[in-house]
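Listing S7. Sequence submitted for prediction.
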Amino acid sequence: MYVTISVLILIVSFLMMLVVLVQNSKGGGLASNFSSHNQILGVRKTTDFLEKTTWTLAVLLVLFCLASSVTIPKAGNQEVKGSKVIENVQQNMPAAPVETPVEAPATETAE
């Protein structure tokens, strides 16, 4: 499930990038190419469509990100089986803690 949601996040992100790049911050972009008033998708309708598409993709991206945080696989307290690192650490651990003697600092005599 997590992989599916991750793929959906990538697709929505790519589509959102394309839609935002088509838009122009000054009201141009794709809409500036349609200067005729007789078209079904005129300048105003194209910018409305692009704005609605941007908001829809943004909401979908947020929802997919929240869903991925819920479905992310968690290791928790389960031990990872077959890990070479864990096996090496367990094999090389000493049976009992080794105590190292602490040397007293040498005192200097003042002459």
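Caption to Listing S7: primary sequence and predicted structure tokens for the chain studied. The two ends are 79 Å apart (CA to CA). The chain is about 55% helix and 0% strand.
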